Amino acid sequence: MVLTCTLGASLIVGIDRDTLRTTLIAALGCNIAWGVIDAALYIMGNAFVRSRNSRLMQAIRSAPDAAAALVLVKQAMEPRIGSHGRDEDRAQLYRSLRNIVAHADTKAGMVTADDFRSAIAVFVLVVVAALPSAVPFLLIGDAQLALRVANVVQVALLFVVGFYWARSVGGNGWGAGLAAMLCGTLLVAIAIVLGG
């Protein structure tokens, strides 16, 4: 977001100290706003998933017989499991899940304290992600040089995020880092062309 704001402003109104200062403040404000939005969406998403799971569990418990309950379990699990494992192993898993659901205590889409703590973490991550881009503007007096250094920092951060994401899921860090960097740069270019 900061990369889009800084590059877009430099293309539209040129590069001067006052414009970049205003753009940087606007970009940080955008990140704060998106932090709030992402945090709220995180809470809403968790409440939705809990509510959906609660409704599914209630439907399984209310099924007219064990066969109907197993059909509901299978419909819920097959998209996640696919055709992995043997048919009889999956059937045993579905029976076990049906039995677990029959004795589980469910709560409808309640929002928990963990949701709020995690939402705060989401907010902080979104806002903190913008801060490295501000450092060049604070340390470098030349507006154009500060902008270019900030852009390099932002693109480098895209690489770092892709690299560590891939490493955390067992993928190729270098490839994912380069892909994140290129995709991010492409998305910024598209946003700028569309007036964003």
Q: If you had to describe this structure to a student in words, what would you say it looks like?
A:
By secondary structure, this protein is mainly α. The chain is built from eight helices and no strands. The chain has helices at residues 2-13, 17-62, 66-81, 87-103, 113-128, 131-139, 143-168, 173-193. Helix 1 (2-13) crosses helix 8, helix 3 (66-81) packs across helix 4 (87-103) and helix 6 runs antiparallel to helix 7. The mean pLDDT is 83.
Secondary structure blueprint with pairings:
Layout lengths: L1 H12 L3 H46 L3 H16 L5 H17 L9 H16 L2 H9 L3 H26 L4 H21 L3
Helix pairs in contact: 1-2, 1-7, 1-8, 2-3, 2-5, 2-6, 3-4, 6-7, 7-8
Element order, helices and strands? HHHHHHHH
Question: What percent of residues adopt helix (DSSP H or I)?
Answer: over 70%
Low-confidence stretches: none
Overall pLDDT score = 83
Q: Report the strand count.
A: 0
Number of helices: 8
Q: Could you tell me how far the N terminus lies from the C terminus, measured between alpha carbons in angstroms?
A: 10 Å
Residue fraction in strands: under 5%
- Sheet with most strands: none
Class by alpha and beta content: mainly alpha
* Gyration radius over CA: 24 Å
Shape: elongated
Structure described in brief:
Helices cover 83% and strands 0% of the residues.
